[in-house]
Every structure is written in C-alpha cells, then in structure tokens.
Amino acid sequence: MASLGGSAELEAGMAELSTPMRVYVEAGRFTEPEPDLPELAARIRGLLAAVAADEPWRRFLPGYTPPSVPEICAALEPVETHGAASFLARVAAVDLVWPSHRHLPAEAAERAAGRVVSLLGPEASWWTNHDIGCGAVNGLTPLFDSLIAGTNGEHFALALQIADD
C-alpha cells in the first residue's frame, strides 16, 4: 500500500483511540510473508497478553492465558469496511458497561477512526468478536471485552476495550 509507506501514521491514529486502562491499541506492519487471518489473530493474542500483564488488570485476570490463535480466529466475525470506522470509534469512545460514559469525545474518536480506516484502505478486511446480527459477543477474556481488528495484508490495526463490572 503505497499511500501508507510506513506504519507511523497508522500507529499515531490508533494511539489517539487509546485510553489508559480501558482501550488498548496496536498497529504496525506484518513481518510475515503473505499474512492472513492467523497472523492477525496472533497479533490479537499478543495484545490480550499485554492487557493481562498490565498492572490494573492482573488482579482481575489471575492465571489468564489468551485463547489460542485458532480459538481467536473462530471468535472473529467480519465487519463490512463501510461500517469499520463507526465500529472502531464506538470501541474507543463508548464504555462497554456504562454506555452513557465516554472514554473519548465522539468527534475525536470518529475523526481518528476514519483516518485509520482510510489509511488501511477500501480493500482492508475488518474483524470483531461481536456477532453483529444478534448482538452477542464472543468474549476473548473472562471480563467484558470488545475488539475490532483490521488489515490490508501488509499493515494491521487493533483496538480492544476491556471492562469489569
């Protein structure tokens, strides 16, 4: 993807969507040749491990081991590209447990999410642990979590909101 060049702009856009102790993000460039869903799932697994190791969440996740790559792949549902920006903004801005609480102002989240989706391009694949049709969530942790992950086959972007009750 020529317009992206490196991943610094993508990483900066995702950083704008991060909220300490609530919304964890990661973005970058794959190092594997011809990455696909299993490589994206491996990055998701790494992000889950980082959350579990983060001091505020250790007490809520004692002994937690992230799901395996095949288990993560099985938990993911596709998101249409045209809906990816609004979904990404929602994961970053709206609290899972208290929807009236905002982690970020809606406008800021929408602007950053739109830029990230644009950087990955219209051919990007987007995935979530939500079954959008019925509203169910395939939890990746024993807590409340919401994930959106995108890739254009060269770069990836991940956002995970985690909450306890």
Textual characterization of the structure:
The chain is an alpha+beta fold and 165 residues long. The chain has helices spanning 8-15, 37-53, 55-58, 69-75, 81-93, 106-120, and strands at residues 23-29, 77-79, 125-128, 130-131, 136-137, 144-151, 155-163. The strands form 2 sheets. It has a 5-stranded antiparallel beta sheet, sandwiched between helices. It has a two-stranded antiparallel sheet with strand order 4-5. The longest helix has 17 residues, at 37-53. The chain is globular, with a radius of gyration of 15 Å. The model has no long low-confidence stretch (mean pLDDT 92).
Could you outline the blueprint of secondary structure elements for this entry?
Layout lengths: L7 H8 L7 E7 L7 H17 L1 H4 L10 H7 L1 E3 L1 H13 L12 H15 L4 E4 L1 E2 L4 E2 L6 E8 L3 E9 L2
Antiparallel strand pairs: 1-7, 2-3, 3-6, 4-5, 6-7
Helix pairs in contact: 1-6, 2-4, 5-6
